[in-house]
Amino acid sequence: MGDTSWQDWPFFNDHHRKLARDLDSWAGRELAGLDHANTDDTCRNLVSRLADGGWLDHATIDPKNATSSLDVRSLCIIRETLARHDGLADFAFAMQGLGSGAISLFGTQTQKDEWLPQVRAGKVLSAFALTEPQSGSDVANITLSAARDGDDYILDGEKTWISNGGIAGLYVVFARTGEGPGAKGLSAFIVPGDVPGFEIAERLETIAPHPLARLRFSGCRIPASNRIGEGGQGFKIAMSVLDVFRSTVAAAALGFARRALDETIDRVQNRHLFGAPLFDLQMVQGHVADMALDVDSSALLVYRAAWLKDSGAARVSREAAMAKLFSTDHAQTVIDKAVQIHGGDGVRSGHIIERLYREIRALRIYEGASDVQRIIIARQTLAHT
């Protein structure tokens, strides 16, 4: 497991430390040598395994417990641990939480009772359908429409870059309902994957294979009871969900960086150059020091944001943005150093370092690109002065 001293930090309770140990042991058994040949099937398999292990119970609230809430530190520990073992396992877990997050936080009891047990049991995969071709980070510019028609809404438009698109059975879709201009006129809806008028328009391929798709809605009729929260609350719902899960993206980046550091430590101790271990070279020692500094700095930012949210902070937009920006950008730096130290092996197809190099890049884009995080941090900093 490498360095575990971070588990003794005051951000955590004993059950968090136990969670980290137990999940690391489980992942070592269940995820080693996992076949990624068919991405869709692998994700389905991973969701099933995560459910059987009880880990998906952390991804949503417990609908049977009125006081249940999302524990962000647990979410971050799980994502960091899974990412360190297998990037697709982290993705599979994350989407069960993000895709159903609006229901956990804002759903009616009927919505929670219908969908959350299926998500926790791995019987349905979930998706968070926010991004559109012309509105990625500009959520207020969403154009997919949801027109009221009696007891129904009719959805028309497209979404794109939707994770789990094509394999999800539950889509939380954000659409324009027109209660007001811009962000004030959006609402959130539950859309089952098999509803008429909804189709997968295109499957999308990326450098690190994940199930992604462009979605098309053409006269897609859903009952008004599928709306989450009140009409016009869609922007608030989306931002609240991201406020919880943005820190977990940083945790996944931290997991990638920590694995790169662990692999690098093993490499420099066992690889010999000029008759001595690679680690004896002072420049290599400098690289390892920089990598360790970036990993610990990321961890402090990630778990500060998570601890604040769990401690009752209404919003942690600034702290979560700092964690995501720093952790994703610096994980890229850590992994790039690992590639350099591994030499040819670092770019050999199928090598763990090569895989990490492909996996990390997307994290600097989704759930708010790095420059968007800078805008959030700047505005929040100004607001607090």
UniProtKB/TrEMBL annotation:
Keywords: FAD, Flavoprotein, Oxidoreductase, Plasmid
Domain Acyl-CoA dehydrogenase/oxidase N-terminal: 14-122
Name of the protein in question: Acyl-CoA dehydrogenase
Essential cofactor(s): FAD
Domain annotation Acyl-CoA oxidase/dehydrogenase middle: ranges: 127-219
Acyl-CoA dehydrogenase/oxidase C-terminal domain: residues covered: 232-381
Family listed: Belongs to the acyl-CoA dehydrogenase family.
Keyword Disulfide bond: no
Pfam families: Acyl-CoA_dh_1, Acyl-CoA_dh_M, Acyl-CoA_dh_N
Organism: Thalassospira marina
Keyword check for Flavoprotein: yes
Source species, domain of life: Bacteria
